[in-house]
Structure formats: C-alpha cells, structure tokens
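Weekly sync, protein design subgroup
Attendees: M.S., D.O., the rotation student, P.L. (late)

Item 1: inverse folding check
M.S. brought a backbone from last month's batch and wanted to see whether the design step gives back something sensible before we order anything. D.O. pointed out we never logged the input encoding, so this time it goes straight into the notes. Structure tokens as presented (169 positions):
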C-alpha cells in the first residue's frame, strides 16, 4: 500500500512543515532577539531567555542527562528544539519543536524546567512533530491526553512533587 494511501494526511503535513517550519522559527528568533536575552545551545536544543532562565535550563539539562539519558538524548540529538522564556505559555501546537517555559514552571526551578523539557520530548515522540491543525480534533485531543499521561508518569517515577505532577492531569 502506498504511503499516501496509508495516511492521507502525510503529504499535506510534510508540505506544511516544510513551508512553515523555517519561516516560523526565523520569525520566532527575531522576536526573541531581546537585548536582555541570552542563548544556550545544547546539542539540537537552543534556549533563549534572561540569564537566570538560561542558567536554570542548563542545570535542568545536566540533571536530565544523569537521571534519564534517553530523554536527554532525544532532546539533544535528532529533532531541533527551541525553548524560550515566556511570561505566558506558548501553544506548541502552532510551531512544531518550539516550547516556552512560563513563570509557573520556572518558579519550580530545575524541577519545573525539567518537567517542561520532558513534556517537550513526549510531545515530539507522540505527535511526530505534526502541526495541531493538520491533526484531526479527536486525534489531537487523544495525543494531548497521551502526552500528559506520559509526562505525569515520568514525573511520578522520578519522585517529583505531587503539586507539579498535577499539572499534567
């Protein structure tokens, strides 16, 4: 069976990612070029934000490399990720591979940042970086539910505080 017959959304999804991905990332980089922001690159993951944010992200990645090499490898090899500080959480469904960390997660320090990084990893693994508007509503809802469950289970298995795991219900 031809690939397009097996998944009729594959060709439009790939086309949209090819067209929108580089443009969206370039626009996002322009927006993030604030004088007070710093950049940190670890493998395929680039962090943008104030110096304190970048420091916490570096600590989170160092911790993640020790506690779960598979997730760390997934974030540093293969797909590109852009992680940036935002006062409000960005909808990752609009730009694949782009994740924000807002104050509600940053207030947890390394634990909160690690939780968002694990969420980014699980989101990418489960969605295969498809844009939400390419996925059907029920498919998108199902994948979001799976991502929350996977992230929550990871946090619980690594003894994260109950209050932080509750963010993924």
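Designed sequence read out in the meeting:
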């Amino acid at each position: 069976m031809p690939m397009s017959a097996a998944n009729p959304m594959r060709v439009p999804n790939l086309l949209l990612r090819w067209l929108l991905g580089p443009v969206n990332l370039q626009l996002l980089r322009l927006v993030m070029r604030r004088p007070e922001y710093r950049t940190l690159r670890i493998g395929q993951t680039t962090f943008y934000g104030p110096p304190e944010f970048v420091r916490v992200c570096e600590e989170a990645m160092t911790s993640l490399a020790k506690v779960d090499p598979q997730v760390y490898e997934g974030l540093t090899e293969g797909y590109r990720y852009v992680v940036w500080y935002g006062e409000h959480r960005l909808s990752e469904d609009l730009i694949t591979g782009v994740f924000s960390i807002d104050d509600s997660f940053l207030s947890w320090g390394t634990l909160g940042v690690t939780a968002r990084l694990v969420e980014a990893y699980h989101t990418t693994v489960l969605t295969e970086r498809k844009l939400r508007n390419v996925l059907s509503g029920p498919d998108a809802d199902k994948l979001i539910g799976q991502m929350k469950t996977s992230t929550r289970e990871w946090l619980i298995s690594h003894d994260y505080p109950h209050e932080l795991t509750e963010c993924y219900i």
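Discussion: The longest strand covers residues 38-42. The chain has one domain: 3-168.
Action: P.L. to compare against the previous round before Friday.
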